Amino acid sequence: MGEQSKYSIDPKSGFCSETKTFHSLRNKFSLPPPNLSLSFSDYSLTLLRLSSTPDTPLLTHSSSSSSPGLSRDHLIRRSENLAASLRHSLPSLSKGDCAIILSPSSPRLPILFFALLSLGVVVSPLNPLATDAEIRRVVSLCHPAIAFATNSVCSSLKLPDLRHKTVVIDSPEFEAMEETPAPIGKPVDRGKAVKQGDTAAILWTSGTTGEAKGAELSHRNLTAALSALNADRPETEKAAEAVVLYPVPMYHSYGFVSCLKSVATGEKVVLTEETELPEILKLVGQFGATQVSLAPPLVALMAKSDDRHDAMMDGCDLATLKVVTSGGLSLGKSVVQRFRSRFPNLLLAQGYGLTETCGVAFRPRCPVECDRFGSAGRLIANCEAKIVDPSTGLALPPCSHGELWIRGPMVMKGYIGDKQGSSSKALDSEGWLRTGDYCYIDSEGYLFVLDKLQDLIKYKDHLISPGQLEEVLSSHPDIIDVVVIPFESEEEASEVPMALVVKRPESSIDEMQITSFVAKQVEEYKKIRKVSFVDSIPRNPMGKASRKNLSKLFSS
C-alpha cells in the first residue's frame, strides 16, 4: 500500500488504473508499532479506560433488566482477577495453548476472552449446540488444552479429555475466580510476552467450500479490526451514548468482533439469546437500545408490511432506535427499499466481512452511504481490494463482475490444521485473500455482493445468480422464505434454477404462478424452471442456507 502515492487514484471510487486496485477512501487509522509486545486484551482495555468513566455501565444480559450491568471498572477488575486466578490455579496453561469455549451469549464471555487473551491463550468459541462429531473435528484441528463450558453444555455433550479439566463458567467456583482480587502491588505473572503476530483466536467458518475451517486470527488482526470499526463509527452517535443490542451469537465472527469492539469503545452492550424478531424488538424498548445487530432474515422480516407483520410489531417501542446493522448475507435492493419505506427514521447499515477478515471489510458510515440500496458500503481504511476475472485472473475496472480479493491488516494468518492446502488457495504470496464472492465495485467505490462463486448456476453458456432470483421471489407477498438452488435437468442437459419456497399458510399460490412471476422480471435464460414447496428452509444463525447441501437433497 506504500506504493499507492506513485499512482493516480480516482477520488470517487478509490480505483487505481495502473495497478487495477481499489484503495480505501477513508482516513487511515494508526496501529501500534508491529514489533511492540501487546495483546489484543491489553490494547482493548487501554482503549476502554480512555473512552469511558469508571462507573460507566458497559455490559448486561437481557434477563437482567433490573440491573444496570457491569461497570467499566468492574469489568476490567473481573478480567484481571480471572487472569490471575487462571495463572495461579493452572500454571501450565501457557501462551499458545488453545481454549475452546462453549456457551450462549453471556457477560461472562467478554471477561473470559480478555482474561485468556492477556495470557496469550488462544480463544476458540464454538456453537454451544454443536454435535459431538463437530466438536471432535474441531479438537482434531486446533488441539485445545482446555475447555470452558456451561453446565447445560457439559450435561448434553461428551466433551473430550484434554490436558486440563473443563472449567464450568456458570459455577460458584468460576465466579469466585472472577471476584478474588489479584495480590495488591503484584502484577499478574503472564509468562512469555504476547506478540501482536501471535495467534489470538480461532474462529470457525465453512469458508467458500467444504467443511468448517478454523481461521487463525492474530492479536494484530483483531486490533486492526477494532481500530477500523472505531474509526469508521457511524456519524449518528457517540460511543458513550450508544446502547447496542446483540442477538447475534458470540461464536460467530460478526458477534465476536462487534461485541468486543463495543465493550472496548465504551458502548453499553446488551446480550441476548432471543432469536424471534418480536422478542428482540421488545428488548429494544426495554433497554432503550440505540442500535441492534440483526441477521439478514430478521431484517427482511422486519421490512415486510401486512396485517400479520403489522400485528407482530404491536407493543414494540422503537423510539430510541437509530441504527439497524446487518451482515453475513447480502440484503436485496427490494428488502432495503421496503425497510426504508417502513422505517424512514432508521439507518440500515449493511456491511460485508468474512471470518477470515475478522468480520469487517466494507461498511457504510453515514446516511448517504446507507442510501446506496443493495450495497455493503465502502472499503474500510488501511485496506485494498480487487475484482478479479475468475477465468483469466486479471483484475478488472469498476462496475465489472468478478471475484472479490482483499488485502489489509485484518486478513487472517491462515487456516488451522490445514492439511488440504486451503490457506494457500485462499491467500496468495502477496497477502491477497480470495473471498470466493462474486461481486462488483461501482464507480463510487460501493461494493455489491452478487453471490458465492460456487453457488452460481451454470446454465449452458450463462452464469445465473441465485441471489438475484431470490430477491425477485422475496418480493412476492405470498412468499415467506425462499432459496434458489441448481437442479440437473436431463431435458436441458444443464443446471437450471430451482426454487424452494415457503408460502404463507393461507396462500394458494402454485408453481405456474411463481415461474410466471419471475419470468416477467428477468432474462429468458434466468427464469425458474422448477418449484418445490417446503415447510421451512434450514439456515445457520446468520441466515445462510447451504445451497450445496439442499441441491444434493433435492437432486437425489
* Portion in helices: 25-40%
| CA distance, first residue to last residue | 49 Å
Average pLDDT works out at 88
Q: What oligomeric assembly is this protein in? A: single chain
**Per the principal axes of the C-alpha atoms, what is the gross shape?**
globular
CATH class group of the largest domain: Alpha Beta
Tally of individual helices: 17
CATH architecture of the largest domain: 3-Layer(aba) Sandwich
**Major β-sheet, in short?**
7 strands, mixed
- Counting DSSP E segments of at least 2 residues, the number of strands comes to 27
Low-confidence stretches: none
Q: Specify Rg, calculated over alpha carbons.
A: 24 Å
- In CATH, the homologous superfamily of the largest domain goes by the name ANL, N-terminal domain
Instruction: Give the neighbour order of strands across the main sheet.
Output: 4-3-12-11-13-14-15
User: How much of the polypeptide forms β-strand, as a percent range?
Assistant: 15-25%
Number of domains: 3
Structural class: alpha/beta
Under CATH, the topology of the largest domain is which? Rossmann fold
Domain AMP-dependent synthetase/ligase: 71-415
GO molecular function, one term: CoA-ligase activity
InterPro entries: AMP-bd_C, AMP-bd_C_sf, AMP-binding_CS, AMP-dep_synth/lig_dom, ANL_N_sf
Family: Belongs to the ATP-dependent AMP-binding enzyme family.
